[in-house]
Amino acid sequence: MTKQTETIEAQVKIFKALADPTRLEIIRYLNQLDHEVSCGEVDRAMHIGKTSGSYHFKILQAAGLITARKEAREKYVALDQSTFDRYLTHFWQN
Amino acid sequence: MTKQTETIEAQVKIFKALADPTRLEIIRYLNQLDHEVSCGEVDRAMHIGKTSGSYHFKILQAAGLITARKEAREKYVALDQSTFDRYLTHFWQN
DNA sequence: AATATAGTTCAAATATCTTTGAACTATATA
DNA sequence: TATATAGTTCAAAGATATTTGAACTATATT
Hints:
The structure is a homodimer. By secondary structure, chain A is an alpha+beta fold. Chain A has one domain: Arc Repressor Mutant, subunit A (Orthogonal Bundle). Chain A is built from 5 helices and 3 strands; from the N terminus they run ααβααββα. Chain A has helices spanning 3-18, 21-33, 39-46, 50-62, 81-89, and strands spanning 37-38, 66-71, 74-79. Chain A has a 3-stranded antiparallel beta sheet. In chain A, strand 2 and strand 3 form a beta hairpin. Chain A starts with a helix and ends in a 5-residue tail after the last helix. The A-B interface holds A 4, 8-9, 11-12, 15-16, 18-21, 24-25, 31, 84, 88-89, 91-92 and B 8-9, 11-12, 15-16, 18-21, 24-25, 28, 31, 84, 88-89, 91-92. The structure holds a DNA duplex. Chains A, B: Keywords: DNA-binding, Transcription, Transcription regulation. Chains A, B: Residues 3-94 form the HTH arsR-type domain.
């Protein structure tokens, strides 16, 4: 696979992950908090069920937009700013 | 509708428009040319049919990512850099 | 040990997106 | 005028994405 094709596939994954109102709201929420929070806390703040939350977190994580850390029962998520920088701020450099 | 909701809807539209490999390739193509071209020329360069091209141009235009100008039989498209600046480069300011 | 909590997985239902050919409008050319 | 070209619209088919409840795993608490 060529380098340009790899880049396009990665970009598509990022943009698909951002192309949903629930996920954009999660991202805004994580950004304004600026520290990691549990999935449950996000679910409650977004007024979504845990099943739906789990689905969205998986997509955000696969795109590299959030980091996740599991501690005992809970999973803590936070923004991965470097991905935003690379794919949004520096869009034309890819 | 609140301002934040408006912003999110606009962002969703932009990101959906970018969340497709054909449309990303169109955008790269328009960017490297850096001048307007006819839809037909883009269709041929992307190896897509005119029906499919028309569909993608409509989505890109509705998102504000391209400008379009009709001259006689032909429609000329070009990137609208200001939208990329506003929604990608300055993502966190929205 | 029994129960509660945090999160995941699965499958079914629904909604949304993309491709395609055929028919169409409008303009250009022989 | 007849024909060709550029692009749009429509509808049908197929592909993807999202929501939901039920069942599940793993950890915490009584």
